[in-house]
Amino acid sequence: MENEQKGSGAAKALGIVSLVLGILTAVVSFIPCFGMYAVFIGAVALLFGAIGLFLASKSPGTSKGLLIAGIVCAAVGTGIGAFQYIALKKGADKMQEMAKDGTLDSLGKEAFDKINEAGDSLKENVEEGVEQEIKNATESN
Hints:
By secondary structure, the chain is mainly α. The chain has helices at 2-29, 38-58, 65-101, 103-140. Helix 1 (2-29) packs antiparallel against helix 2 (38-58) and helix 2 runs antiparallel to helix 3 (65-101).
């Protein structure tokens, strides 16, 4: 009887730990660019949840609700974190490919040229506006 109680207590403790880490995994997974690290927290939560579920199955009458909730939260957060990792990895690979074939340089040059054109246009407009204001001020006197 004491072994059943001991296993039941361990399963409950692992259920709480799994749920807390699972919720933390789910929350962290939604942080842009940092969410991919939720995979590590999620792996630990899944491990604790699986061990707790194993212990709970050995102890009759032990509630498995916290364990299942922890496993589900951890699985969802881990999935989202893994998706972020894959998306960031593909983006980084594409940027490296563009840098190697010169596409990135030409895009940067085009953007730089457009910024310079906009700056020149703004400068001309400001100069024309100042000249017009000076002309209006001298005419009114």
